[in-house]
Amino acid sequence: MRLTFMLALICLALAGPLWALKVTLKSEEKPFEATPLKIEGHTLTYKRGSKELTCAIDDFVAESAFELKRALTSRAAAPLLDLARFALHRDLFTPARECAKEAQSLDAGLAGDCAQVAALCDTLESEALFVQANTCLDAADVEGARARLNALLSRFAGSSAARRGEALLSTLDQLAAELKQKAQEEEARKAQEQADAEVRKKRQPIDDWLQEFDTQLNRDEQRLRDADADANAGRTGKGLTAMEEIVNASQKVRDALAKNAHVLQYDGQVLRAKDIDDRAKKLIVDSYERWASHLFAMKNFALAGKTCERALEIDPRDRRLLALKVDIDEVYDKKSVLDGVTPPDKDD
Questions:
Q1: Pairing between β-strand 32-40 and β-strand 21-23 as defined by DSSP bridges
Q2: Does residue 315 lie in a domain region?
Q3: Has residue 60 got a pLDDT over 80?
Q4: DSSP annotation of 332
Q5: What is the DSSP string of 39-87?
Q6: pLDDT score, position 337
Q7: How far apart are the C-alpha atoms of 48 and 67, rounded to whole Å?
Q8: Is 141 found in the same domain as 85?
Q9: Position 338 confidence tier, pLDDT thresholds 50, 70, 90
Q10: What share of the chain is helix, strand, coil (3-state, %, to 5)?
Q11: What is the CATH number for 160?
Q12: pTM above 0.85, yes or no
């Protein structure tokens, strides 16, 4: 009975450690307790709660992978040297040095291999510190870079990384000034963006108001083409009525712009309003010219002359209107019969 109990204890001891380790998988954020059972190559078998699981040891974060392997490593020179190399390949330099030192203490014949591990640790860790310093500079963390460069120079003096670090440290104050200036410029840019956003918010209602006029004029320019086509096709009543509506609508645009000129406070709005006013003016003159031309073709010389005069009041140098006015005056007959389609009165 006693012999059976002793054999059971021996089997349990050979099966692996009986304690759980706090470890973290790369695929999980929170650590958990795991009991390592065995490792074959890079495949680890462990218990998590009551479940026995198998995975690649490098599925764990580097520190956890090292602790799991160390728990299954015997305290002999060769396995400890292998554990040191395992730590070295995962940038765990302090554990790598400790394991190599312990391996050398157990077997002096491994001194050369252990020294090689220690030298590689120094080289890789010094390079890592130099990279970390540059990463800090990329993040505009000058003091973080300074701390890592000072650590590099004090711990690994004479190394290639230390020589580069010394050169970088000598320019750190200048870099700090440049980074500060860059940060100030970025702050100014953000402040300007915020100010621009506030201006856009304030000017947006006026911009939208001007855009409505642009849209209306686009629509009425097409309406004039359609109205001219209707009049040419014999649908004179429809065509001339549309022209009258276009004149009235365009005049309202000009009146609204003149009345509200004081609200055009922001950059570009005055010029845009002028462009819209010029378009509305041209559309009125074009509508009057087409209107008068069709009345002239209908031999309604009185109304044609009156309509032409209204247009010339707006643009006295329009060559089309001036030529048409000459034609109307040559054949004008005060007894012409009106067809009921009249231009708006001057004060309408």
A1: antiparallel
A2: yes
A3: yes
A4: -
A5: EETTEEEEEETTEEEEEEGGGB-HHHHHHHHHHT--SSHHHHHHHHHHH
A6: 44
A7: 15
A8: yes
A9: very low
A10: 75, 5, 20
A11: 1.25.40
A12: no
DSSP 8-state code for residue 90 = T
Condensed to tens digits (0 to 9), the pLDDT of residues 239-289 reads: 999 999 999 999 999 999 999 999 998 889 999 999 999 999 999 999 999
336: alpha, beta or left, given left = phi > 0 and alpha = psi -120 to 50? beta
pLDDT tens readout for residues 173-201 = 888 888 788 888 888 888 888 888 888 89
- Whole-angstrom distance, CA of residue 90 vs CA of residue 72: 18
Q: Which domain holds residue 253?
A: 199-331
Q: Give the pair of three-digit tokens for residue 314.
A: 């707006």
Query: Do 132 and 67 share a structural domain?
Result: no
Which tokens belong to 113?
A: 């291999």
* In a shared domain, residues 252 and 132: no
User: If pLDDT is split at 50, 70 and 90, which confidence band does 10 have?
Assistant: very low
- Same domain, residue pair 133 and 215: no
Number of domains in the chain: 3
φ/ψ (deg, to 5) at 175: -65, -40
Cα angle: 326, vertex 329, 333; to 5 degrees: 155
Q: How far apart are CA 273 and CA 206, in angstroms?
A: 10
Average pLDDT over residues 82-109: 94
Cβ neighbours for 11, distance < 8 A, ≥ 6 positions apart: none
Strand ranges across the sheet with 21-23: 21-23, 32-40, 43-48, 51-56
CA-based nearest residue to 23, from 15, 14, 35, 31: 31
Instruction: Record the tokens describing residue 60, joined without a space.
Output: 């764990």
The residues, any chain, with a CB within 8 Å of residue 265's CB and separated by 6 or more, are 203, 206
Please report the beta strands in the chain, taking only residues with DSSP state E, as ranges in sequence order: 21-23, 32-40, 43-48, 51-56
Q: Using CA atoms, how far apart are residues 256 and 11, in angstroms rounded to an integer?
A: 99
The angle that helices 236-259 and 269-297 make with each other, rounded to 10 degrees, is: 150
- For residue 126, the SS3 value is helix
